[in-house]
Hints:
This protein has about 220 residues and is α/β, with parallel strands linked by helices. It has one domain (about 5-215): SGNH hydrolase (Rossmann fold, 3-Layer(aba) Sandwich). It contains 7 helices and 8 strands; from the N terminus they run H-E-H-H-E-H-H-E-H-E-E-E-E-H-E. A 4-stranded mixed sheet has the order 1-2-3-8. Strands 4-7 form a two-stranded parallel ribbon. A two-stranded antiparallel ribbon has the order 5-6. The longest helix has 25 residues, at about 40-60. The radius of gyration is 19 Å and the shape is globular. This is GDSL esterase/lipase. GO terms for molecular function: hydrolase activity, acting on ester bonds. Belongs to the 'GDSL' lipolytic enzyme family.
Amino acid sequence: MRRHVPVDCRSHLSKSLFILGEFGGNDYNAPIFGGKSLDEVYTYVPHIINKITSGVETLIGLGAVDVVVPGVLPIGCFPLYLTLYGSSNQSDYDGDGCLQRFNDLSRYHNRLLRQGICRLRSKYASVRLMYGDFYTQVAEMVRSPRSFGLEYGLNVCCGASGQGSYNYNNKARCGMSGSSACKDPENYLNWDGIHLTEAAYRSIAYGWLTGPYCVPAILH
Length: 220
């Protein structure tokens, strides 16, 4: 639906790049941390995807023609999740040391999101809609951090240094008493257990600009 927007504003928006999100991560974090079952959280996904695609359509109606729509990250690779929901059953982990059941949720979200983007592409052929693939790149950064100029894939930079398997303690999170920050954050993928470092986002930005982690690449 085309919305009434001043001509000069519409012209400006048509020359701008929009990155819509990432949306969805906290919509899953909040209920999971609140004790909701994964089965219940799965039921939220279609509603969240509908809200995201509706937001894209709103932007298009305002005049946007270049929009990146990011998926969610592999939450099963976050040290916070790995610490709070760690398992003694090795089959609960994938080959990279991430919790499969949480990554399955991320993949489900991303699959429905890509389907939604495909529908929007068919409806708005003149608009350039790009899928920002957070999941694949971050999973590869966990698997092979040195390929991205990093040293550590699952350890946190700011947290409870030397504690647990990931330098993470939920009672000594980054900024809390008992926590400290590493001296070399440029070598870490993960900042505080659930957020990435500046170094990680620099690599992600490059991957989106030139490919292959944005489909199509922004500069394609």
